[in-house]
Amino acid sequence: MAAQFTAAAPSPVGLPPARRRHGRWTPYLLLLPGMGWLALFFVTPVFTLMSQAMQTRPDGAPVGYFRQTWNVGHYWTSLQEYWPWFVRSFGYALIATIVALAIAFPLAYAIAFKSGRAKNLLLVLVVAPFFVSFILRTIAWKQILADQGPVVSMLQTVGLLGDNGRILSTPVAVLSGIIYNFLPFMTLPIYASLERMDRRLTEAASDLYANGWTSLRKVTVPLAMPGIIAGTLLTFIPAAGDYVNAALLGNRDTAMIGNVIDARFLRLSDYPTAAALSLVLMLSILVIVGVYVRRTGTEELV
Amino acid sequence: MSTIAPQRPATTSVTRRPPVKRSAWARLRRWSSAHLIQVYMAVAFVYLFVPIAYTMAFSFNNGGRSNLVWRGFTLDNWKNPCGAPDVCSALGNSVKIGFIATFVATVLGTMIAFALVRHRFRGRTAINLIIFLPMATPEVVLGASLLATFLNAKVNPGFWTIVTAHVMFCISFVVVTVKARLAGLDPRLEQAAMDLYANEYETFRRITLPLVMPGIAAAALLSFSLSFDDFIITNFNSGAVNTFPKFVYVSANRGIPAQANVIGSAMFILALVIVLVGQAVGRRRAR
């Protein structure tokens, strides 16, 4: 107790204040309902998916009827058939993440350091797109980027786009939808870590003859790294699994793996393939996230 | 950096030498760089608001059923937001689902957060992992796996399967939000209450809960917006039940009715007002 009274900082997460009077079972009782829910509706479904991916449709069986045959090879055959969609999804997600980072970092920097008293208001404005339904926002882009829409005619006047050129149904449209929709996810964490930064450190950098660029590169960016990592993950993960942007703004050639899973599952009732693709998608994202987090050396994500 | 420097002459005088010419040049450069970022910020906000402005403008379009081309200004859509078939029943479902899912997820998630921050127990790593995983799993996987499970269990997708799914993906976000607030709490406040002869229940009710409340409220708001706006997981687990995002998505091919824009715009304004009022109240309290 005495030690805690003298400690200036609140106790870190790992060391809860001692509370001997609590029953031994209290934490488990607190955890039970929520974790039970997750066990039933998150963990179990993942295992269901795993077993469903190994089912086969017997010859002559009706659509949507499958029998468990433990056909492990189905993971491989699905991957073989659909790897281009995986490549496209991860490629789009990567490009979108990089572009969103390029847009979001200066924006977060400006809000954190250059906005004065308007800071809170600007922060609300960054989140404001979320207040309009995701689907409505995407449809708005569909209309803005349409063939007769303002962007296309402007680009045609400037000469950047041919007379028959279009944006809708191209990768550019899908990418701009993804970038737009996940931009706040990128901006907020970066802002949060910039905001926490001790600004005397950049002063110290300039006292030590660093110019603006050097102090940005050597002081600000490294200190913003936790936010950058969180933001890139929060953008990359949903972007890789998204299919709404591809469905509304793209065409067949821009379909992502989410579109395939959606179609296999809901329209074609090909559950085993959809299940196999879902699991491969989940695992590859976890591997990517794991490698990325280890490489960049942050452990405090949760 | 440069804006703070003038306030601290003691440190800056060491680095900057007095020549007038150079400081004017430096000032010019500083001015332009400072304003460059403000111009950039303005452009970024325009970008962020273009689709919102578009959605709002087209809520006033006299476009009839397919709201694709501007056909003139009208207030009819705002006067009759339920005018298009199914819009309001879909909205009603979304609101109902949002409230139920938010309530359940907030209660369950807050309990987990308390257990994680305030108690020692075995299996903490596993619990943390299970809470982190749903956030790192793409929605399409969450939706597909849950539907597979429901179909296996012979449960017909409908209203309650949507609620179940929404609670599932909201819990993790509640845990993370409440945990952050709880971990930042000064434990000495609770110890002080105990020293003043408050029992555990009183301490919890009068000290801990009020202090954690902003975190719980933020978590609930986040849950509601996640639930209300969810399309992908809902689309998998909804059966024939319509929600607002699903309604908009399905009618996108034919052109969505202007009433959807009205509802979207109204929600936008409502959410903005709630957040701004919340901020103002928070600031007044802090004073």
Overview of the structural elements:
The complex is a heterodimer of chains A (302) and B (287). In chain A, 70% of the residues lie in helices and 1% in strands. With 302 residues, chain A is mostly helical. Chain A has a two-stranded antiparallel ribbon with strand order 1-2. The longest helix of chain A has 42 residues, at 73-114. Chain B is mainly alpha-helical. Helix content of chain B is 75%, strand content 0%. Chain B has twelve helices and no strands. Chain B starts with 8 loop residues before the first helix and ends with a helix. The model of chain B is unreliable at 1-13 (pLDDT under 50). Classes of the chains: A mainly alpha (302), B mainly alpha (287). At the A-B interface, helix 2, helix 3, helix 4, helix 5 and helix 8 of A face helix 1, helix 2, helix 4, helix 5 and helix 6 of B.
SSE blueprint:
The complex is a heterodimer of chains A (302) and B (287).
Chain A: H1 2-6, H2 26-52, E1 55-56, E2 67-68, H3 73-114, H4 119-127, H5 134-144, H6 150-158, H7 171-196, H8 200-207, H9 212-241, H10 244-249, H11 257-267, H12 271-296
Antiparallel strand pairs in A: 1-2
Helix pairs in contact in A: 2-12, 3-7, 3-9, 3-12, 7-9, 8-9, 9-12, 11-12
Chain B: H1 9-15, H2 20-57, H3 76-79, H4 87-118, H5 124-136, H6 139-152, H7 159-183, H8 187-195, H9 200-229, H10 232-237, H11 244-251, H12 258-286
Give the helix proportion of chain B (percent range). over 70%
Name the overall outline of chain A.
globular
Largest interface: A-B, 102 and 104 residues
What are the secondary-structure elements of chain B, in order, as H or E? HHHHHHHHHHHH
Largest sheet of chain B: none
Rounded mean pLDDT score of chain B: 85
